[in-house]
Amino acid sequence: MSHRIEVFRTQDAASYAAPLFFRRFRQPFPVPQVNCGLSIPTPPENWRQYVAVYRPPGAVAETIGFCNWIRYGDAYLGGGLCVDETAYRRMKPEDFRHCRERGGIAQMLIEHAAGELNDCSAWFAYVGDRKSMAVTLRSGYERTGHPYIIARWFRPLSVVEKQAMIDRIAAIGAF
Question: What pTM does this model have?
Answer without folding.
Answer: 0.93
